[in-house]
């Protein structure tokens, strides 16, 4: 599209269709128009420095004979048309830059929103991965003065780990009994949840009595602790 066609068509660009290449093309057209304007001013300068407003008749009202009137009139006409074209192109440049800037801001906002969502997902995943594990059994009672009591076990502690037994591989209290039978005199790692906080204990059991009881509406495994341990 020529400068004149762009001006006559309104000189505007459709929203959302502007690219960097479009802006570069508009800037190229702008520079071409400016070069053409300067070339026509050079023509006027060559005619005894006559400008856009100097009279083309002498003091007696006759056409001036010291300048080429045709060249002067043509150059003046071209300058006026080219200045209008330049104004139209500058309007297009302004609109294009505004659209690009608005689109960049929108993209930045979208990218930031997506980054915040990703951070939230990462944070939630991180929180879930480090959330308090669920216990698979609950301490019902502990013999007073026993090494287990001295080690820090308390009633209502939820067992998360008992040696090699955890919530992933626990099936029945027989699993714990088996661990105890194979760990007499050896230090066992016991992890419990107490009032929402995780605690780690070390026990060396010699005997374990246990039973399964009902707790609430669900069948849960609970301990009747009578562990004689050396710690």
Automatic annotation (TrEMBL):
GO terms for cellular component: cytoplasm; nucleus; proteasome regulatory particle, base subcomplex. GO terms for biological process: proteasome regulatory particle assembly. Residues 124-196 form the PDZ domain. The keyword Chaperone applies. Pfam families: Nas2_N (PF18265), PDZ_6 (PF17820). Belongs to the proteasome subunit p27 family. This is 26S proteasome non-ATPase regulatory subunit 9. The lineage of its organism: Eukaryota, Metazoa, Chordata, Craniata, Vertebrata.
